[in-house]
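In the previous chapter we treated chains in isolation. Here, by contrast, the input contains two separate entities that must be folded as one system, with a combined length of 1630 residues.
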Amino acid sequence: MRVIGKPLPKIDAWAKVIGETKFGDDLFLPRMLYGRILRSTYPHARIIGIDTREAEQLPGVFAVITGKDLPIKFGILPSSQDEEALCVDKVRYVGDPVAAVAAVDEETADRALELIHVEYAPLTPVMSIKEALDESRDQIHAEGADHHNIHKMVSLEFGDIAAGFAEAEYIHESSYFYEGNTHLPMEQHVAVAQFGADEHLTLWSSTQTPHYVHRALAKTLGLNASQIRVIATPVGGGFGGKTDPFSHEIVAAKLAMLTGRPVKIALNREEVFYCHRGRHPVLMWVKSGVRRDGEITALHFRTFLDGGAYGSYGVATTYYTGALQTVTYKIPAYKFEGLRVFTNKPPCGPKRGHGTPQPRFAFEVHLDKIAHDLDLDPPEYRKKFVVDNFSKTVNHLTITTCGLGECIEKVVEASGFATKAESKSPLPTPPPRAGEGERVGAIRRGMGLACSSYLSGAGLPIYWNEMPHSGVIVKVDRSGSVAVFCGSTDIGQGSDSLLAYIVAEELGIDLKDVHVFTADTQLTPVDLGSYSSRVTVMTGNACVQAVRAVKEKILEAVAQKLMVPAESLVMQNREIVCEDDEARRIQWQDAVILAEAKFGTLSGTGSYKPPKRAGPFKGSGVGPSPSYSYSACVAEVSVDTETGNVTVDKIWIAHDVGRAINPLLVEGQTEGSVYMGLGEALMEEQVFRRGVHKIPSMLEYKSPTTLETPDIKTILVETLDPEGPYGAKEAGQGPLLPVPPAIANAIYDAIGVRIDEVPIHPEKILKALEEKAKGKEARVGPKEIPNVNFPAPIHVEPPENAPKLGRRKLPIASE
Amino acid sequence: MRVIGKPLPKIDAWAKVIGETKFGDDLFLPRMLYGRILRSTYPHARIIGIDTREAEQLPGVFAVITGKDLPIKFGILPSSQDEEALCVDKVRYVGDPVAAVAAVDEETADRALELIHVEYAPLTPVMSIKEALDESRDQIHAEGADHHNIHKMVSLEFGDIAAGFAEAEYIHESSYFYEGNTHLPMEQHVAVAQFGADEHLTLWSSTQTPHYVHRALAKTLGLNASQIRVIATPVGGGFGGKTDPFSHEIVAAKLAMLTGRPVKIALNREEVFYCHRGRHPVLMWVKSGVRRDGEITALHFRTFLDGGAYGSYGVATTYYTGALQTVTYKIPAYKFEGLRVFTNKPPCGPKRGHGTPQPRFAFEVHLDKIAHDLDLDPPEYRKKFVVDNFSKTVNHLTITTCGLGECIEKVVEASGFATKAESKSPLPTPPPRAGEGERVGAIRRGMGLACSSYLSGAGLPIYWNEMPHSGVIVKVDRSGSVAVFCGSTDIGQGSDSLLAYIVAEELGIDLKDVHVFTADTQLTPVDLGSYSSRVTVMTGNACVQAVRAVKEKILEAVAQKLMVPAESLVMQNREIVCEDDEARRIQWQDAVILAEAKFGTLSGTGSYKPPKRAGPFKGSGVGPSPSYSYSACVAEVSVDTETGNVTVDKIWIAHDVGRAINPLLVEGQTEGSVYMGLGEALMEEQVFRRGVHKIPSMLEYKSPTTLETPDIKTILVETLDPEGPYGAKEAGQGPLLPVPPAIANAIYDAIGVRIDEVPIHPEKILKALEEKAKGKEARVGPKEIPNVNFPAPIHVEPPENAPKLGRRKLPIASE
């Protein structure tokens, strides 16, 4: 292959580096107004009244709107239509949108916001999972309903969990907490709306999901869907934070409709923290039963999610905290209980790894503890029980290829993990660094390993109907130019380039011959958007189908002209050559002209819908994917026992990507995931005091810089998965997952203490070391789990080829 | 039908009337430079040297280029690649581009032009057909070659011309001259070029033919065709004047490539007169043989075209001055000799009616003379010999439907022509108008009739290969929104609307559901452009094919859902209804969602190539068309015998449009054609003195205003032609043709003098009246025809079902 598998630059690389790319905030339309949103200063309150008269009188103000102008609720999931573009009766977090203004400039709009007078009646705020479960606190949604502040409760049992624990030779229980954090994209959210003379609404927005925004606009504005066009501008970082439809998008549209002028709303950095939809804080309890060799016989997993003020993707997130544990190692019996609460904080939603980094952290640390308890080698023990290729999990997920065994081998070999782990002792303290004096405490070094898996796109769309998840139309014309139309949204991951690579590979042409049009609900066929790591596999498959439909015609026309069989023709280097007689060849453009004359306008259409693989139970839609990626990670850390500072010295990560369509991009995605996992492990968190976000700025919200980011050694493992284009699987999210547990396990290796919650701050290290010195439990982590009566689980029979209990009871040939 | 045949507004009407439409000159790109072109001040000269040093030093100047930077010649026809974007060795008319500058603003660029010093060596200018045939004048092209200043010579004979004249009972010869004139679009030409970081060139241009511009750019700039994107901006008037690729388009592109910044070149009004490519001045000689009843037995037609300095479409124009005479009335023997010369004037090309208004003027006045000579009723006589439906002409053109007979009846009835003509005398002089005193001369009124026919698109593309002439891709998505992609170029005639009408009709949806993307060589499939009245028939046919491909899928899905046969389903009012059981119905959007789930992404592709109908001779490519429109026109005029002023009081025009897809637009096109024909008949002309255009401004170039435009009564005749979508034929050009001869014939009816040349100025009227008063020939027109030795004609046998000679010799049943 000439293009696939090659480390080529992105097709938009030049435009990005020289500043030619126009992001949403670079859009300026004639007569454009600027919108600003007034946000609640209360975490939980009733709106008694809003007086906008003074604001309306301010010169330069064109419109002032409140909740009564946009009363229709919206939300991303059909079951969570609980948001208002501007709050009608209640506010539910500090930052909740209350009113909006369109004015000649942002200063005037801001001044007008100051002139809007809102009268609130405060309610008791609910700021934690514990407070949410306290029924004496005020209810956030649907007051009077008996769920109080519980948003979603799930209880599922796969296989015979009691038999699994009965078969266990060792049972281990532990609790974990994963703090919430946010995406921190470089680009703030921005939307520009225009309502044309023809009564068509166009919205440009920095969104990962233009089609879902389209749907929310149609619903809230009462327009025909066909009158609305949503164009995703190039996204300057999404990571899941631009996957919901947002208030400011709807508000900008409404203001444009009311004023007849274009309206731009660009969020400031503080507002981005309010609409973040980031990582849920999750409290977890794990109980597993294993045999002496580490084989899991039963797993019981409980998650408590702090969802913030609205539903967002939270129902899916809740399921995700349970669904994918089974995809990594063989688990013959599994019980999952999940619970999501509403709190008076900005709503949480999907962030890279959506709902899975938290349980992965818990599970991989839990396994590390078991390995130490049973004196097992962490990599060997994990490798032994990796899921089988082309098998099913106990919860009815379909495994295609699994390269996790190879991933483990590769990182172990590259990092020298086994050798160091075998020594069973911390590495020697390094000599003081230049400029460092004598030290009280030692620098201890350690290594830890963790594994993970992730989806290549979700099995269901977030619509009510069956549909293609991705569609691609390819047009080829006599200039030799190929236009590719696809709704996919390039959020920096390179999805536009992916389309170009596939077309260039299939047709044997240059990347410069390919012109990609994407992310426009009117111009391009539907594509669900850039989330759940779905684009490479789903859009890629649709693109392969579309381009091959055109290719077939071109080859037929050329075969006829050259009087050779079409099967003998190869497309390469802008030529079509007969393999059997290389003198018979024709230039690319001439071939197109021939085919165009023979068949008329040349186009091909492809679309992709994932295989139907849901299990026979409610909630089974969350988890299935055409394929799963696998990662293994080794982290090497230095812990300063005096300050508690943890330095990650190096990360080795091996990722089974199926096929690296562009290894450069996959490495980039992997490094980005590692960087983000590092931040989550050591420093990132959302911190609230009295309902107010304490650190809503890039200065105060701690995130790693290049200085904190270690050398990352990425190893790509290719398993050529049959479900993906050229064998590809996901790459953009999975590699984040094993990083926090690998670091936590490395810290244990270094200093013998367990930090069972992230972020792992120095004070937690010091506290654990202090306890250890006192001879107490050397652990920082949740001490207790809420006492909740989960409903009786729905029992689900595992599928035929899932891992089975009672292995030892089967007759074994020679043992 | 709900949409087709209804007088709906254009889909871009609102955007146009409120100023939302962005024309080329409304484009402003960041860091854009302004280009200006230095033009020759000599009509004919050698370039000795160009010194650009001083201009290059001027602050604010980014680039100065001359012919050496763009040495590759271009031109629209394969056989006329004779233009240079900037002249290399010679200039050939005042206005010929010589050098160009890109600067920060237009003022700086203009100042820089003044600092470019060009040394010329003047040559003898050639300013008329007569001078062009004078071999003592300098040669304009390919000096030394033996054609001297003759560009093209054609000599063809169809059938037995000698036998035809031998069979004639009356032979009439006359000469005519049709002065050149220009398109005078409201919008001046403008091009904006951008050469991106990705080495792709984008050119926005006010052009009727983006694909032909694309080809010229690829050739002259040495870029891969697939690296170039041409986007036609909304055209503020074209009329053929934006059908060539132009110097300023290539120059803008080159300057953008050299400077790395976008470059805009907007021509000023004077420059538009230089690059006009307007109506050729044509001198004509007609000889026809007729029977006593007016039946034509032989026609001999000679045309001499003054082509200006370059080839442009001139070879085609030359053929067009001969090809279509046979399409209106039965002609059994036809000889055509045509000749085009180069002169040192701005090159002529296609203007509304391309090469046919001139011979139509000559032929229809000629027929009027014969009618008077033989005492025949002009309409009855014409009607009798109209071509037959579904026949062939002597020169191998295929007639499908012909509604000319009905057109004649309709205008005669509406105008009362027969009654007035029968009176054989001028109408009574009207009383003096208010404020007018006693008059010396009388106001005489008269009526005249003329007919014509025109093509619905040309049979051949202006490429070297066979190809689809129009392609359409239709995409339908779950919002119920339909995107239509087509390369057609809306130049105000409403071609974008046409696509929307067809899609809305076929799918039973609203125009607001349809979104049209056109005129972009990269985004849309090929369409040859807006010329030769080709769009409605060719693009329309491609669109019908494309939309029906999608429709079929939608109906299949709905039929399955409703459990009824697909044939019983009707699409109307955004619903699909079973005709046999109206309770079985489904909403449009739901139907799309069903079909999308069943078939994947919904798209349909259609393309159109006209039937191959060329005759067996060289040059036979000019003339064939899928179908021909027909017009009949009656003009009523008042001639002031004192001043010579002619006032056109009313025009009745009947046009056989096959089917009026939107009668409002067809009427608009007809009225526009009549208005333009009126200008050509009475006032418009290009006037040169010493090689310089005397009146290159809207102030001085005389064109009718609303004050001179009479009441126009348009009558649409529908023949439902099998070649066109829903039966449609052309409408935008044909109705111009009969207007000048109808006016000339009306003048004769009013005052008994023949003005055999246009424009018909008052001084010509007065001169003819003076001659008449003296008892001399009451005629103004060419006295002599150049004595040219045309080559021996190529003799072509007429096809089987062409009009035959020897009718009277056939046995006739009962006579």
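The CA atoms of residues 54 and 115 of chain A lie 6 Å apart. Confidence is low (pLDDT under 50) at residues 421-427 of chain A. Compare these points with the single-chain example from earlier in the chapter.
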